[in-house]
Amino acid sequence: MSILSKAKNTIRKATGRPGPRLLTVKSAWRLTPNMIRVTFAGPELAGFPEGCEGGNCKLMLPEPAEGRDAFADRIVNGPMPVRRTYTVRNFRRDMQELDIDFVAHGDNGPASRWASHAEAGDFLGFMGPSSPKVTSFDADWYLVAADPSAIPVAAATLEAMPRDAKGVAVFEVTAAEDRQDIDAPEGIQMHWLVHPKPEMPSVQQSDLIRSLDWPSGRVQTCIAGESGLIRTLRAFLHQDMGLPRSDTYISGYWKIGLVEDEHQKMKRAEG
């Protein structure tokens, strides 16, 4: 038994939760010009939970040229690898395949750097997944909004909805070619906005959402993206529109000018 397998068993016995997995890349390609899809496959996905699309996970990233055994030992004994939060996009149990989508920033950031160079046989560490962000669909109308960082959770939510669901989905992407095919219900009006400079603030999503003819009945949301925009939308939904917090999944996934560790520290400080 490998050192990582022993650690997994210890963690499962102590907490009831699965320990880290060491996943192997089957393929990696440009889903769109600014999005990379990496498919993992292999026996390490045995026992992976079904219906987890839209749940988040922690990816542990090896250093360039780091060997598999050395990396596995580091997960268990430290120093801990760099970790980043991502979303499960697809899991195919019959094929033991898992898809994770990465926004392509070139070598600017450890996760984008890893994904940009990923090829069959590469590996990383995986913890999770959590439950999907929206698990109950019983509203009269749905509002979904995302920038590139949150397209996986938004897309998974749309694909899990009842086929007779109605609402609006707003996606903001870096280029028109970044539009994706998403199996959303026919009653969801899809809007694709282009914001070519994601390092600069944008009000396109906020402006469109504020301009909507607000429906009667119960509304549920799945909204995620840059924290400055999320703060504005949260105030609009909770204060102006009076939506209960229990019906509004809305989360800042990143913030302009901050790396993930700094952003998470900021979110904890804000409560």
Low-pLDDT parts are none
Rg, alpha carbons: 19 Å
Question: What is the element string, with H for helices and E for strands?
Answer: HEEEHEEHEEHEEHEHEH
Strands side by side in the biggest sheet: 1-2-5-4-3-6
Largest β-sheet summary: 6 strands, antiparallel, barrel
Number of strands: 11
Quote the beta fraction: 25-35%
Silhouette: globular
- Distinct helical segment count: 7
Percentage of residues assigned to helices: 25-40%
- Overall mean pLDDT stands at 92
**Cα end-to-end separation:** 42 Å
Structural class: alpha/beta
Q: How would the blueprint of this fold be written?
A:
Blueprint: H1 3-15, E1 21-32, E2 35-41, E3 56-61, H2 68-77, E4 82-92, E5 97-103, H3 110-117, E6 123-127, E7 141-146, H4 151-160, E8 166-173, E9 187-194, H5 204-211, E10 219-226, H6 227-240, E11 248-254, H7 260-270
Parallel strand pairs: 7-8, 7-10, 8-9, 10-11
Antiparallel strand pairs: 1-2, 1-6, 2-5, 3-4, 3-6, 4-5
Written description of the protein model:
Residues 18-136 form the FAD-binding FR-type domain. Belongs to the SIP oxidoreductase family. This is Siderophore-interacting protein. The structure is a single chain. With 271 residues, this protein is α/β, with parallel strands linked by helices. It has helices spanning 3-15, 68-77, 110-117, 151-160, 204-211, 227-240, 260-270, and strands at 21-32, 35-41, 56-61, 82-92, 97-103, 123-127, 141-146, 166-173, 187-194, 219-226, 248-254. Strand 10, helix 6 and strand 11 form a beta-alpha-beta unit. The longest helix is centred in the C-terminal third of the chain and has 14 residues, at 227-240. The protein is globular. It starts with a helix and ends with a helix. The model has no long low-confidence stretch (mean pLDDT 92).
